[in-house]
Structures are given as C-alpha cells and as structure tokens.
Amino acid sequence: MIKRVLICGNPDLNYIDGSAIWSQTIALATAATGSAKVDFLTRSAPARRELFAPLQANSNITLLNGAAREHWSGRSFARITPAMMGELAARLDEDQPYDIIIIRGLEIATQFLDKPRSLAKCWIYLTDIPQEASAYRPDEQLTMQRIAEGCNLLLCQTDGFKALWQALVPDLKADKIKLYTPVIPDFTESLPPISQRPQMSIYAGKFKGDWMTLEMALAWPYVHRKLPGSELVMVGDKIHNELERPNYAVQMKRALKDTQGLKWLGAQTREAVQQQLRQARVGLSWRNEGMNDTLEYSTKILEYGGAGCAAILNRNPLHERLLGKDYPLFANSEDQFKKQLVRALNEPEVSQQAADSLKLLAERHTFSARVIEIQKWMNDTSYALITRPKHQAPLAEQVLKVVGPALKLYQRLVASPKQPPTKKTIRVLVAGHDLKFFTPLQKKLEAMGRLEFITDQWQGHNLHDKSKSRALLKQADVIFCEWCLGNLKWYSHNKIPHQRLVARFHLQERELPYLAEANWKQIDHISYVSEFIRREGQKAFSFPFEKTSVIPNLLDESKFTPKKKTADARYTLGIIGVAPARKRLDRALDLLEALLEEDNRYCLRVKGKHPLEYDWLLKREDEREYYRNVFERINSNSRLRHKVIFDPPGDDVNEWFTMIGYILSPSDFESFHMAIGEGLLTGSKPIIWDWEGASEIWGEKWIIRTVEEAKQAVIDYSPENELRTEIKGILSSQETSQKWLDIIQKGP
Asked: In the β-sheet with 231-235, what is the strand arrangement from edge to edge?
C-alpha cells in the first residue's frame, strides 16, 4: 500500500549545509522505497537547484512552498519560521491526513503537542536540543516526555542522543527509538587507492569560524611550500558573518580567491562533490576545540570514507569511539593540522590506513542501506490513537494523580469529534510608541487562544493619528497601553464604557506628566515591571494601589536558548545598550581595566546602537560630554584600545551570547534590565551593580558593590549549568502570560 508522507524540517534547502542535505536525503530515501508519495514542505520558495533539483525530478516527491500566499490567507512571506512550518504541517494533515509525518526541529515538533492524532504519526529527529539531561528543568523534561510518548518514532543521529532520550524518558519503549545516522551516496564499485591519486586535499561545506575554514586556507601556503605540486580544493559558497570577527567574510573570500595552490569551486551539486572526493587523498574536517564534546558527527567524514579518501579530524571522545584511539590523522591545533596535512599528502600508506578506517565506518551509512531501513519502519508503523495502556508506566501514574480529571476530559474530547462551543475571542488593542518589550508577551498570549490583537502604533510619547486611533478603538474589547504616556492619557479620556483599559508602567513615566493628566476612573489596572518601580510610581502619582500589580517583563525562553560557548567566552564581558549615560559604560571599562591587569585575554563587547547615533542624545550637552570622555579614555589607552568591541544592533542576540561569559548591568538604575534575563537563559553569568531594586528582581547572588567584587566574581569563573533553570524558576514566561491573561479577561 502506498503511504502518504509529509516531510517538514527547519533547514531551508536554498542554503546548502549538512542539515539541508539531511532533509533532501531522507526525502529521496523515503521516495526510493517505492511505497510512499512524499510531500516536501519548504520554508521558502525553491530557488537554488543544487539541492532542490533532485527532488523536483523525482516523480514520487511533490514540493509544497510553505511561504506561498495560499497557506496564509493571502499574506506573503519570504521565509516562514519553524513555528509557522509546524502550524502549517498540522493544518495540512487535518485537511488531507498523512500516514507519516517526518519532523526535524524542536520548535516544529512542539506545534503538534496539542494535536495527538497528528503527533501519533510523527517520526521526530531532534539535534537542536540541550545534549545533557541535567540541562532540562522539569517543565522542559515534561515537554520532551510528551513528544517521546506521543510520537510514532524517535530518530537519533547517534547512540549519545539515544541515551539522552532514555535518560529524559526512562519508561520509553526501546523499539520506539531508531538510529538515523548520517547518510552518504552508495559506493562506487572501484575506487582508486590513495597511492594512485594526486596530492590533493579537499574541504566541502560551509565557511564558518568554528569550522576552522579560514585557518585551513591560511595554513595552506605552508603545506604548498613543502609539497609544491599539491592542491587544496574548497567547495561551497555559504560564507558566514562572524560576530566576533567583523572582517571574517571578507578575509575568507580573499583567502579563497588569492591563496596560491588553492582552487575554490563555489557551490556544487552533491554528485559533483563526490567526483572531487574520489580524486582526493585527504578531506579536511578540523574543528574548533570548543566543539569536541558534541554528540553529533559530520556527514562529511562519512562521505570522505565513501569516496575512499582519508580525513583529518579532531581527537575527541566521539571520533575515538567511531574510529579508535589509534586513528592516524587526528589534529587538535594549527601546528598538528599542518603536520598531519603534509603527512597525509606525502605518506600514502598513512592516508590509506585512515581511509580504510573511514570506509569501514561509512559502509553502515549508505543510501541503499537506509532505504531498506525506512521501508522496514514504514511496514512496522501502526497508528492506533493513543489510549491509556492497561499497565500505566510509573511516571504516567504519578502524573495521573495530579491531572486525572483533566485527562478524563481530554479523553472524552479526543474520543468524540464533536467539540464544545468555543468562548468568544477577546480583541485587544495595543497602543504605544515602543512595543519591543510587548511583542514577545503578545506571542505568548496569542498562543493561549483567547485573545486577538490589533495595534495602534504611536510615533512618540504623545504623537499619534487620532482618526486611526478612534477607528481602532471601535473594534476593541480591551485597550492595552504599553508605557503610561500620552497613549494612556488619550485612551482614558476616549474609551467606550464597556471597554477595559489596562496599562504597563516601566520607568520613564515617573518623570513625565501623562499619568497625572489621565482619567483615573477610566483606568482599570496598571501593572509595574518590578516592585521597586511600583514604589517609585506610587510615590510620584499615588494611583489607587488596589488597581495595581507587579508583573515582570516576559523572558522568551524559546528565543534565548543555551548554545555552545566559544572558547574565549570565559574572558569576554558583554553589555547590551550603553545609552544614556546612566547605563554607566565607564564602570564596565573600570572592570575591564582591572581584569587586564591579571590577564590580557579579557575583552568587552558592547551590543546595540552606538550612543552617538541617537539624535536626542546629541542635543544634550551633558550626555555628549560623558561619551566624549568615555571614547577618549578608550582610544588613548593602549590597553583598552583593542579590547573594547562594538557590535551592531540586530536580532542575533542569542548568537551573540555564545561569545559572552558575563553579562554586565553597571547602571545607576534600571526598571528591570532584560539583558540580564536573556544572558541567564543563554548561560552567561550576570554581574549586576547594586542599583535599587536589582536584588528584588534577580536575587542577591549576582549583586556586586565595588569593582574589586566584580573582578573577583569574574576571576572565580566556574560554568553555571543551572543558570537557565534558576531564572526560569524565578521568572516563568508561562506564569507571566497567565497573570496578564487574567488581568485582560477579568481583572486582578
């Protein structure tokens, strides 16, 4: 029987890398079983032929453009997010049910948690998750348990991932976990031995800092001088921008174009890459030392083995387990890399030994072998709706004691296609000039399914289009004023009697007259972002206390996630936003100078808009004078001049945090300071000067009062594995969202 299969993953095949090749390969292998018709959901319109062409040429595969208007009520997107892809996949399955849904990516998988019928069809492959069970807090572990228990199969790249799932879900049936290791093309019947190949080395893939591709290119002249007839071939055109190395892309491209003895082929099809590999003596898979504890291994080393060539690899636990401790071409430093590359090109017997080891490993990963495995899994797959087993697992029994009544209701709903009538959606009008703190909260509230949002974007504290505001007002059930400024004043004098009016008070409002000029009788609730700010606000305005609350800003743990830190992160201080002067960049410089007395590896990275790019700041003499002095201090100090790095603003803060060991808050005062929470979620240690209210929000643990205390906190570095768990226990996004939902729906 032919089965309908939907494949949806977070890789975008318009960008060529290992994860994109994974998606292409599993689609081709599933179609090759002859038992499936595959729909392949794309994140953007197919544009590049390198990976899409084989899918388009396959009569058993249909490409579905996930960004097409037809899926989004006429709205157009250049590229949909993983969450949107998960939502769309669930809708497609509801409209025309599939037999199997293959998912790659946690954010996609979580979209199926409230759709048990669809989840029960899913084969799920996750690598974008913490790789140690101890890194999961209880609610995150419960999410993983729900995924594991609800899906049909879990596909694991390595035994390490298999062990991780078994640690997270101890009662999971063993036959639910399948090893889905990287896949390579079938071997050519006859491969030339190393001794018959030219002195050619090859790298194929992305050009990225941790992949050491610039270092490979810069090391090549040394090798080429030793072996004048040798050649380095580099394949690929995906050159990353590196936050910590602003000129990386330029330097990489220059090295590719100008290095003697280096041939850059640009983007190539997978078949063309294979042809190059079959001519090479050695492939290059040297990585940054910071990647040595990964559970993942590169498809590329299998492709090297399948093509009969050797590979230079890092010595790490995974590679030693796969290839043995006596594998002859391990390299962990630049000096080792150079020596091993000369050796691999000049000593064919050494390269042949390495190539034979890789070939033995690669034989277990061929395309034909994988097709057979997928065919077997498809034949074994059954799709009975999840019901409670006769012998409930111990974990489930514990959960049932707590959620038994809710589970019974859930089973009744699942058993019957008839759903209870839905409650009326509440339409919320959000008004304000700066909504950056509100946007993540809005996304969480929308996901709860009870609220619909419309926006009145103001141009300033007291500047807006009145006719537009009046038109939007007529559509709203609730008005939410972000900041208590002119927006709250205007809406309090213009709201319709049946409407609720709620607002959020940050900090600058206490110095401005708008709340005093508002109609307090028409304001139903004001929430402050911290207890200190409530004290300050109440001191300034004496708004009825019973109509106030304290709800912290929402920290988005789905956006800010722990990733592998760079090797230099432990010597890197970070600060986000250094304007106005009360942010006290000078204090950060004091700390940096003190640390440089101990070790010259310390540096300070400043993320965000440059202070002198703010028009309002340039109009204030005191602010201009402050920054003039700060920049003169940096530029005139030989120790500081090259140790303060300004990184541009952008929506890449989570990536930026991979370089940051310590996130600073040296301000005179703050209302909340989101950067501290974001840093904690990503594993950066906070250093917080004792501004009023800081300890109430973040706890006394991170507070310092002198430069010497701050210096000691940095020097006494130790990785804090529980930072994310700790902050999520204090400031839960779910709790924050629920509090706001309660206020919007029915008041405090």
From this structure: 262-266, 231-235, 200-204, 282-285, 310-313
Token pair of 246, please? Answer: 């602003």
Nearest CA to 543 among 505, 490, 497, 498? 505
Q: Which of 218, 208, 206 is nearest to 254 (CA)?
A: 218
Give the CA diameter of the chain: 89
Instruction: Spell 216-237 as b/e; 16+ CB within 10 A means b.
Output: bbebbeebbeeeeebbbbbbbb
- Helix, strand, coil percent content, the chain, rounded in steps of 5: 45, 15, 35
What element of type H or E holds 645?
Answer: strand 644-647
Residue with tokens 């250093």: 687
Judge whether 500 and 527 are in contact, CB under 8 Å.
no
Six-digit token string for 233: 């071939």
Sign of CA dihedral 287, 348, 196, 260: positive
Nearest to 687 by CA among 710, 669, 715, 717: 710
d(CA 342, CA 335): 11
| SS3 (DSSP) at 161 | helix
Two tokens, residue 335: 């000096």
Measured CA to CA, the distance from residue 570 to residue 567 in angstroms comes to: 7
Rg (CA), the chain: 29
Backbone angles phi, psi at 551, to 5 degrees: -130, 120
Backbone angles phi, psi at 427, to 5 degrees: -95, 120
Residue 737 has, within 13 A of its CA and on its CB side, a CA count of: 19
Mean pLDDT by 10 residues, the chain (748 residues): 93 82 93 96 91 94 94 86 92 95 95 93 92 84 93 90 91 90 79 95 92 96 95 92 82 95 90 91 92 70 90 92 93 94 96 94 85 92 42 38 41 40 76 90 85 93 94 95 96 94 93 94 94 90 92 81 84 95 96 94 93 88 94 92 89 89 93 86 91 84 93 80 55 81 78
| Rounded Cα–Cα distance for residues 675 and 654 (Å) | 11
Q: What is the pTM of this model?
A: 0.45
